[in-house]
Design goal:
The longest helix is centred in the middle third of the chain and has 21 residues. The model has no long low-confidence stretch (mean pLDDT about 95). α10 links the parallel β14 and β15. Helix content is about 35%, strand content about 30%. It is built from 10 helices and 15 strands. α2 crosses α3 and α2 packs across α9. The strands form 3 sheets. Strands 3, 4, 5, 6, 7, 14 and 15 form a 7-stranded mixed beta sheet that branches. The protein has a 6-stranded parallel beta sheet with strand order 10-9-8-11-12-13, with helices on both faces. It is of the alpha/beta class and about 325 residues long. The chain folds into 2 domains: about 150 residues, Quinone Oxidoreductase, Chain A, domain 1; about 130 residues, NAD(P)-binding Rossmann-like Domain (Rossmann fold, 3-Layer(aba) Sandwich), CATH 3.40.50. The two termini are about 25 Å apart.
């Protein structure tokens, strides 16, 4: 029996993604074979496709950073899950496929009442947002924060979770996304027409408690400019290894300045490899919030699982607000 996956065949644009067939093997000891219901499409997939991601395997391979699926078969020694259980995993790669093999220790149970498309949006974007807010910045009710790139998948997650935490929210985005940000509870700043440093200095002359910086480059330094004494900037996301090194160097330099401000870089892959326990703790919290109707993941588009190239084209166009997901065919009817 065979299954299909979408692999990067060479570095380049979305058309380098091709559908291939694979042998469907039995799971090894400690593994579960998962039939994938949903996987996300994100910026990290683009970086992998361009050949800039340090945690990517050698080409050819299937991207796909996170999955929700159903346990299809179990290897020897797997005891925490059974066939038919709905599960989630942070895979980093491999999600653009009909099936995937995952070690039991990486699986989190998913309530069957949740929409798989919405649930998969939580695994990377909302975990990133939740941990930056509550584990890095340690926000509290009444804090004033800025989110750069607020219309993206992580940005909209930060806005929604920030509203639940009773924060005063500012977010940079192009004008066409402003109505959505206002609806979510943030004050939008048009990065094409406005300088967010000037806007924040006028609106919050005492400065902000936190900045969540997803653009990088000069925006890191500018983000420091709007922090109050004792404020913290958390940077995340990068478009390549050299840019990441530059951003880390910036943060190191800014941290040694005698201004009472601090900054750090949040990278979920490195943190997960170091200690996955916070991820395993936080994801069920987010699933509970979703089930209670307190989160509303913005799904920009839903594509059939094997139409990953078209989904990547939409992502790179910059026209999508929220999360793009790939779904098993039965979920699209």
């Amino acid at each position: 029996m065979n299954y299909h996956s979408v692999v990067i065949t060479r570095k380049g644009p979305p058309e380098v993604l091709k559908v291939i067939e694979n042998d469907l093997r039995e799971p090894e000891p400690g593994e579960a074979r998962i039939k994938i219901l949903a996987t996300g499409v994100g910026r990290t997939d683009i970086i992998m496709r361009r050949g800039y991601y340090p945690y990517a395997p050698k080409i050819p391979f299937a991207p796909g950073y996170e999955i929700v699926g159903v346990v299809d078969a179990l290897g020897a020694g797997v005891t925490r899950f059974g066939a038919g259980d709905r599960v989630a995993a942070l895979t980093v790669h491999g999600g653009y496929a009909e099936y995937i093999y995952v070690g039991e220790e990486h699986l989190v149970r998913v309530p069957v009442t949740l929409d798989p498309a919405e649930a998969v949006a939580l695994i990377l974007n909302y975990i990133t947002a939740y941990q930056m807010l509550h584990r890095c910045a340690r926000v509290k009710a009444g804090d004033k924060v800025l989110i750069t790139g607020a219309s993206g998948g992580v940005g909209t997650a930060l806005v929604q979770l920030g509203r639940l935490a009773e924060l005063t929210l500012y977010g940079t985005a192009s004008w066409r996304h402003h109505d959505r940000l206002i609806e979510l509870g943030a004050t939008p700043i048009d990065y094409h027409q406005q300088d967010f440093v000037e806007v924040i200095h006028q609106a919050e002359p005492r400065g902000l408690d936190s900045v969540f910086e997803g653009i990088g480059g000069a925006d890191i330094r500018r983000g420091f400019n709007v922090l109050r004494h004792g404020g913290k900037l958390v940077a995340y996301g990068n478009s390549g290894f050299m840019k990441l090194l530059f951003d880390l160097a910036q943060l190191q330099f800014l941290n040694i300045l005698p201004n009472g401000k601090s900054g750090e870089f949040y990278g979920i892959t490195a943190l997960y490899r170091k200690d996955r326990r916070p991820f395993m703790t936080d994801l069920p919290i987010l699933f509970d919030l979703l089930g209670a109707g307190k989160l509303n993941p913005i799904i920009a588009a839903r594509f059939p699982l094997l139409e990953a190239a078209q989904a990547n084209e939409l992502l790179e166009s910059g026209q999508a607000t929220g999360k793009i997901v790939l779904l098993a065919p039965e979920l699209l009817h």
